[in-house]
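Chain A, query sequence.
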Amino acid sequence: MAPTSTLDLIQTPPLEFSSHTGKPILYILDQFPPPAIKYARILFHVILPHDEEFRHWRENATALLIRNSYLTAEDVSSCPNLIAVGKHGVGIEKIDQDACAARGIKILNTPGANARAVAELVLTLTMTVARQIRSITIRQTLAPVPKESCSGLTLYRKKIGILGMGHIGRTVAEMFRGAFDADIIAYDPFMPAIAWPHIIHSRAKTYEEVIFASDVLTVHMPLTTETRDLISYNELRQMKPTAILINAARGGIVNECDLEKALAEGLIWGAGLDCHEEEPPTKERYGKLWGNLNVVSTPHIGAATADTQLTCAKMAMDNIIKYLATLN
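Chain A, predicted structure.
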């Protein structure tokens, strides 16, 4: 039978096994906690960056595990035997997906593994901004703060707008419903109409509808050409003056210069940012934004809990070993 696509013409390289352990070899490009490495050694013959064999990873690797490293088109072209790339976390924008697809290299990420930890941080950022915790804490280091001088917003039965209805968005919706009996409005053009049957919510036809209606707007979309600068000055000025904006997805979805301007003009109440265009964020770039005490900023720590890091690592390793088993 004639091949039906270019992938049918791709010859999968033979798997690389250790002559000592008989296990498939896994090259780990980034640092992982010791429990994760211990688990990896159960499944694989592991080669770490400090190992002597690691310097030959490009020539020899059939399977890689990455966390924060980039894998460029040049990297892919220099790995003639590469078959699978395990990615710790859901985001794969640091991997050249076109180069991998052209070679039939499987990218195996871990959707859902970090959903609860990220959703908990979204809740944390929202409550911190709503109650002006940063402002009150800083003031308190300088002088006693009379409680009469403090103010904030309550979240009970407020409208929570969610852009992106994947694992994290769904978990955020569940938490806000449970904690605050919140009114959920969600938008995702790629999810079926029957999504989230267990969550009381309304489904918006456009993201503008969510922006206009929300008391809290939280973003859970990937960064793409279409979503870059999705929330800019025009969108921010349509939000309620008491609205809170949360970005725990990717830097670049919210236009940071426009957000700084909108906050300075009092167009919205405040913002909680776990994602920035520059990561880790620096005072040199974000000092003016951080000068607004209704801004809470964290350096992309949504999944940075011990439990979540280990869960993500194990899932990525399991994904690799299961995929390699299908090739035997």
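The domain at 6-113+307-327 is CATH 3.40.50.720 (Rossmann fold). The chain has two domains: 6-113+307-327, 115-297.
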